[in-house]
């Protein structure tokens, strides 16, 4: 059997939708899904219709919200339907877009059209779209708005008002009045809620809690006349109902007695209701101005807190430590025993009024602080609450400056501890020098606060009774000590500081003993020599006492005091002294004092140490061993110091170039002697050495090892000579150095003098070529010379030198000798002075011919003296522009007798040349004078004029201004002396350059010459003007100043304006038209209405100007302008005055145009509405009465249209004031029209009143 053929898919249904619905067909078949979808759509449209009926009379905002809401619901439905893929209800993209568009149009028409008609739909749609998405144009034409016309202003709503009521203290609060001595706060305001009216008369009473007496208060118009009693509280309004605050200035029970509104009608209220105003709660730490001190330990300390006000209290206080780590806010709650009030459970109402519970109460509270932790603590009350929930936050009040901070400082102090600073194993010793000797036992005190009182006991020995000593006062820890003046045991017993008793810690006792005096024992041993015998003594000293020791002694030689109080120190108990004097004789050593660490300079009574000494012989040179010089052939004596016992024999040797010669000197009886060295036969270095010395008294000989003496021997005697081939010149009152040549060895000493004079001068030189400075002229002669070795000789041929005084350098300052070089000379020969080179003399200075700036010039001056010359001079520049003078110093050198001084012409002004000094090869800085005057030259440098265009940017000139010579080109001429001559070039397109000379051009105070454009330059187009040359009166001239000397300008055409009609009168609302002529640029029309100046810019395509009259006055066209190329504005004033008279329209104002006037209408009364008319009488108008826009509570009703209840026509009114009386609720409006005799056009004006 063949398999069944598959079914073909429908051509109109996608195969995916048929086989893949979101909800499987096994759970819900296709027809059922379609039924649910259609039912949901119908249900949503029914709800939409019901919503539309509910907002049919709402405003635009509600309609727009409904449109957005239901459009979103429909879109979500279509998207969900498309997602579910229900068979036969699938929505391809095109169908989905079409369905969305249809639903959008339906929703838009439904929520924006007031009636179902094509015209109204179009009108409503357009108005809604413009109302929601477009803002008004800033330049649209004026239009008429019947609901907002400035000629019909004001509205007056009349409401029937029911009886009003008031509620005193609607939240049943309790209030408090602060104590001004405790905190600075304003008095409270008791709220009163008004319904349907506002107060105009107030009666209230206050019953005192203390006396029970009641005081009544009456206030007329309290919200205006007594602002301090009753004031409006906008922040507390409830549902639009006003709330007023009644000022509570005294403590007591407040009651309302009577309230009346503005119409004198009583306002209902609950008369028995009372409001309690009590004293604000107070809490403070007692004795907060003091500082409490306590000692640390066990237990607690109570911190007193005083609470005042209405019990019970909740007091929050803050405890903080000085470390800042511990900050705690703690709460105390308390009330007096047996206290009861209406705010507490169990209160029983008394039969008679009794306010004793509300009187001021006071109670002492306390906070605890543990003594276990030392430190500094601060206590302060930060918040307090009384029995009727009045809370004062002191932290906030202090921050606002309403209260001073009250902080109690509590110090929990650590007790002091004391111990002795000593080692129990080492007793402290008393140095017993007299009966008052004592020692200090240092104390170690920790913690606590000065001053301290320390007690101790003294026990002489273990078998003696302890003795209580007097306490000692200690002001500084560093000075803590016990003065021990007796040996024994000292033990601490107690300590107390300024606040607390302390503890004794170990070590608590110290032993004191008396230190023994130091002693010394002496033992001696003789120091022997094999040849001489005793040459000294060794003394051994043994000490008792405490190290370090010092022993002092005197030294006697042959019964004569040689040394006194010689001291030796030792850190060990044994000291060895070796006494080996260098002289023979009997020596005595007497020990006088000994010292140790405890005792100083203890006298000794020891036998002296005696010893006869025979010292060994010795010898040494007394002079230096180097630097000795001698001349060949001469001898030399050397000093020698001998030691030991004489007479002596000494042996010495002389060594030269390896050759040794031995010499001796015998039987020398003096300890100081001289050894003679034989004549030096050769030049070079000789060495003299001491070999041995013999003491002839005992025959002992000692070999010597002292340093030898070196002697340097020269080759021959020195010579001296002048290096002076010709006479040497020097300056008057000056000096000169004479050159001298020397031979021999350094240093040299010489003498010289003037020939014919006996006096000589000495000189010393380290160099072979020496200079001798002399100050007088004459013939100098050398007399003698010596060097480091010996006397020398003067070279006879060069022993003299002649010195003469030279003439001073000078300058030829005759007028005919000075030339001003660089100017034109004409036909004058070179050896003559041309007129323009000649200087003039004026009083005290030379005057050089004036020149223009940058002219090359120099000053030629002749000199006398010895070249080279150096001229020092100063230039002082004084600018012609003012300012400080510039002074500079200059130096000019010349190798010839003619000097050219450069003349400065780079800047304009006056340059002064002050020649100060002239130097030549001999003289330095010779002051220059001309007769008795300083040498001064003055020179004027004239400024060349410079002509620039003041503003060289491209200019544009209007044709009519050029023709009337109104346009000028400002040319700024700087420098120079006028009048000036100018050469100006004018170039036009396709035309040759025109050169225009200008003579006798004068400038204004600002240096501006305004060159008028020639009247022939009136052709429209581009021009260029260039200033090519400017010359001043002195002939100084300059050419072009670059780009600043040229300017381009264009001559432009000008616009005009003419009236279209001849009408000179118009009304407000009319249009007045004018015709415009000119270039293809926007027009700017300037006009005035009375004194108000206005401007309007018209498009370039607009060739007319229309003025729409919006207010009365005189319209006048001032001028018409065009800005050509967006740069130059060309204006034209009308040749004949263009004016028009604009008349005003009539106006009607209800209650002077007040838009918010609402009057209350009580039953049986009526309300008058004032209408003010403006214009020319008689008037005719229509007024209507509509439904009121506000309800009884003066809330705006939620609807757009209000029905017209009454229409009245009032004709032929000659007065400008009219009153309409009504006894019905609604709002009055002038509707229809207003006519006046001077206005023939009726206007439909609607105004809501």
TrEMBL record:
Keyword Transmembrane helix appears in the UniProt entry: yes
Report domain Nucleoporin POM152 N-terminal transmembrane positions: 29-112
Pfam families named in the record:
Ig-like_POM152 (PF24312), Ig-like_Pom152_1 (PF24519), Ig-like_Pom152_9 (PF24527), Ig_Pom152 (PF23664), TMD_POM152 (PF24097)
Q: Which GO terms describe its molecular function?
A: structural constituent of nuclear pore
Top-rank lineage group of the source organism = Eukaryota
Name the Gene Ontology biological process terms: nuclear pore organization; protein import into nucleus
Q: Where is the Nucleoporin POM152 immunoglobulin-like domain?
A: 516-617, 859-936
- What are the Nucleoporin POM152 Ig-like domain coordinates in residue numbering? 416-510, 718-799
Report whether Thylakoid shows up as a keyword of the record. Answer: no
- Tell me where in this chain the Nucleoporin POM152 first Ig-like domain is found: 165-277
Q: One GO term of the cellular component aspect?
A: nuclear pore transmembrane ring
Query: Membrane-spanning residues where?
Result: 35-53, 65-84, 96-113
In this chain the Nucleoporin POM152 ninth Ig-like domain maps to 1055-1130
UniProt KW keywords: Membrane, Transmembrane, Transmembrane helix
- Name of the protein in question: Ig-like domain-containing protein
What species is given as this protein's source? Lunasporangiospora selenospora
């Amino acid at each position: 059997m063949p398999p069944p053929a598959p079914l073909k898919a429908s051509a109109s249904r996608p195969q995916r939708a048929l086989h893949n619905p979101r909800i499987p067909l096994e759970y819900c078949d296709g027809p059922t899904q379609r039924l649910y979808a259609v039912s949901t759509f119908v249900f949503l449209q029914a709800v939409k219709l019901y919503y539309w009926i509910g907002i049919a009379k709402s405003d635009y905002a509600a309609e727009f919200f409904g449109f957005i809401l239901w459009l979103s619901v429909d879109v979500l439905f279509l998207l969900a339907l498309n997602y579910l893929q229900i068979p036969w209800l699938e929505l391809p993209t095109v169908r989905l877009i079409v369905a969305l568009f249809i639903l959008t149009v339906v929703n838009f028409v439904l929520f924006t059209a007031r009636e179902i008609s094509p015209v109204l739909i179009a009108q409503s749609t357009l108005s809604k779209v413009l109302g929601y998405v477009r803002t008004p144009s800033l330049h649209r034409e004026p239009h008429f708005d019947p609901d907002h016309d400035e000629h019909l202003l004001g509205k007056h709503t009349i409401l029937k008002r029911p009886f009003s009521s008031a509620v005193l203290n609607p939240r049943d609060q309790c209030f408090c009045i602060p104590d001004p001595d405790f905190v600075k706060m304003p008095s409270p305001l008791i709220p009163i809620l008004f319904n349907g009216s506002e107060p105009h008369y107030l009666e209230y009473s206050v019953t005192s809690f203390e006396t029970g007496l009641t005081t009544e208060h009456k206030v007329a118009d309290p919200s205006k006349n007594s602002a301090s009693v009753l004031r409006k509280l906008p922040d507390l309004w409830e549902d639009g109902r006003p709330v007023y605050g009644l000022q509570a200035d005294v403590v007591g029970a407040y009651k309302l007695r009577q309230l009346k509104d503005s119409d004198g009608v009583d306002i209902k209220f609950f008369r028995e209701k009372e409001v309690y105003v009590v004293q604000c709660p107070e809490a403070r730490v007692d004795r907060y101005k003091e500082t409490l001190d306590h000692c640390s330990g066990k237990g607690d300390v109570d911190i007193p807190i005083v609470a005042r006000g209405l019990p019970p209290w909740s007091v929050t206080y803050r405890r903080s430590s000085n470390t800042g780590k511990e900050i705690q806010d703690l709460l105390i709650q308390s009330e007096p025993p047996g206290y009861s009030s209406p705010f507490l459970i169990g209160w029983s109402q008394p039969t008679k009024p009794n306010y004793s519970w509300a009187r001021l109460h006071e109670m002492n509270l306390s906070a605890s602080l543990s003594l276990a932790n030392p430190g500094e603590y601060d206590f302060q009350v930060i918040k307090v609450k009384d029995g009727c929930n009045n809370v004062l936050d002191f932290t906030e009040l202090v921050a606002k400056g309403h209260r001073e901070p009250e902080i109690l400082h509590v110090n929990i102090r650590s007790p002091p501890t004391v111990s002795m600073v000593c080692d129990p194993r080492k007793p402290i010793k008393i140095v017993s020098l007299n009966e008052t000797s004592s020692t200090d036992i240092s104390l170690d005190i920790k913690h606590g606060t000065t001053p301290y009182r320390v007690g101790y006991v003294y026990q002489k020995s273990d078998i003696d009774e302890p003795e209580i000593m007097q306490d000692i006062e200690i002001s500084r820890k560093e000075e803590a000590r016990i003065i021990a003046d007796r040996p024994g045991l000292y033990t601490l017993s107690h300590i107390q500081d300024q606040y607390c008793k302390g503890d004794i810690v170990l070590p608590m006792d110290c032993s004191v003993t008396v230190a023994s005096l130091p002693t010394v024992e002496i033992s001696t041993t003789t120091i022997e020599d094999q040849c001489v015998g005793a040459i000294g003594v060794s003394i051994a000293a043994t000490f008792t006492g405490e190290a370090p020791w010092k022993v002092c002694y005197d030294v006697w030689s042959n019964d004569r005091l040689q040394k006194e109080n010689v001291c030796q120190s030792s850190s060990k108990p044994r000291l060895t002294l070796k006494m080996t004097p260098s002289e023979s004789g009997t020596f005595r050593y007497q020990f006088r004092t000994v010292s140790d660490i405890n005792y100083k300079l203890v006298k000794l009574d020891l036998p002296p140490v005696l010893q006869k000494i025979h010292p060994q012989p010795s010898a040494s040179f007394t002079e230096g061993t180097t630097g000795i010089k001698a001349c060949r052939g001469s001898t030399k004596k050397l000093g020698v110091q001998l030691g030991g016992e004489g007479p002596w024999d000494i042996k010495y040797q002389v060594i030269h170039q390896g050759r040794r010669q031995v010499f001796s000197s015998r039987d020398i009886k003096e300890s100081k002697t001289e050894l003679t060295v034989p004549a030096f036969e050769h030049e070079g270095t000789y060495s003299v050495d001491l070999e041995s010395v013999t003491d002839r008294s005992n025959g002992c000989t000692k070999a010597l090892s002292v340093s030898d003496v070196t002697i340097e021997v020269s080759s021959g005697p020195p010579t001296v000579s002048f290096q002076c081939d010709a006479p040497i010149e020097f300056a008057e009152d000056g000096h000169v150095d004479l050159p001298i040549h020397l031979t021999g060895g350094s240093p040299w000493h010489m003498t010289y003098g003037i020939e014919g004079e006996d006096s000589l001068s000495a000189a010393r030189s380290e160099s072979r070529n020496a200079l001798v400075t002399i100050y007088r002229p004459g013939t100098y002669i050398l007399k003698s010379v010596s060097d480091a070795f010996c006397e020398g000789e003067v070279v006879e041929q060069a022993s003299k030198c002649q010195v003469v005084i030279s003439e001073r350098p000078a300058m030829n300052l005759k007028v005919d000798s000075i030339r001003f070089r660089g100017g034109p000379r004409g036909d004058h020969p070179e050896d003559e002075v041309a007129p323009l080179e000649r200087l003039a003399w004026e009083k005290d200075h030379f005057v050089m011919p004036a020149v223009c700036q940058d002219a090359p010039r120099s000053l030629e001056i002749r000199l006398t003296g010895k070249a080279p010359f150096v001229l020092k001079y100063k230039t002082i520049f004084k600018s012609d522009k003012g300012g400080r003078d510039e002074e500079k110093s200059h130096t000019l050198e010349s190798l010839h007798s003619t000097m050219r001084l450069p003349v400065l012409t780079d800047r304009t002004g006056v340059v002064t040349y002050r020649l100060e000094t002239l130097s030549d090869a001999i003289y330095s800085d010779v002051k220059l004078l001309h007769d008795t005057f300083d040498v001064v030259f003055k020179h004027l440098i004239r400024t060349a004029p410079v002509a620039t265009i003041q503003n060289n940017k491209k200019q544009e000139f209007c044709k009519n201004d050029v023709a009337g010579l109104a346009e000028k080109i400002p040319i700024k001429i700087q420098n120079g002396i006028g009048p000036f001559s100018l050469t100006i070039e004018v170039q036009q397109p396709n035309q040759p350059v025109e050169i225009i000379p200008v003579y006798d051009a004068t400038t204004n105070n600002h240096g501006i010459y305004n060159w008028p454009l020639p009247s022939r330059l009136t052709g429209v187009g581009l021009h260029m003007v260039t200033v090519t040359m400017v010359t001043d009166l002195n002939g100084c001239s300059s050419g072009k100043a670059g780009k600043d000397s040229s300017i381009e300008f264009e001559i432009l055409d000008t616009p005009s304006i003419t009236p279209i009609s001849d009408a000179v009168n118009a009304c407000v609302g009319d249009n007045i038209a004018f015709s415009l002529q000119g270039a293809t640029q926007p027009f700017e029309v300037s006009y005035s209405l009375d004194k108000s100046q206005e401007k309007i810019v018209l498009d370039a395509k607009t060739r007319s100007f229309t003025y729409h009259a919006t207010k009365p006055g005189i319209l006048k066209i001032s001028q018409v302008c065009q800005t050509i190329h967006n740069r130059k504005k060309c204006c034209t004033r009308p040749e004949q005055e263009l004016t028009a008279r604009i008349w005003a329209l009539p106006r009607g104002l209800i209650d002077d145009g007040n838009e918010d006037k609402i009057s209350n209408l009580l039953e049986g009364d009526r309300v008058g509405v004032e209408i003010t008319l403006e214009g020319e009488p008689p008037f005719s108008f229509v007024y209507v009465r509509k439904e009121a826009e506000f309800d009884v509570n003066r809330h705006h009703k939620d609807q757009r249209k209000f029905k017209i209840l009454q229409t009245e026509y009032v004709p032929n009114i000659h007065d400008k004031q009219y009153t309409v009386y009504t006894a019905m609720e609604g709002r009055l409006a002038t509707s229809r029209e207003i006519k006046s005799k001077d206005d023939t056009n009726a206007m439909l004006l609607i105004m809501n009143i």
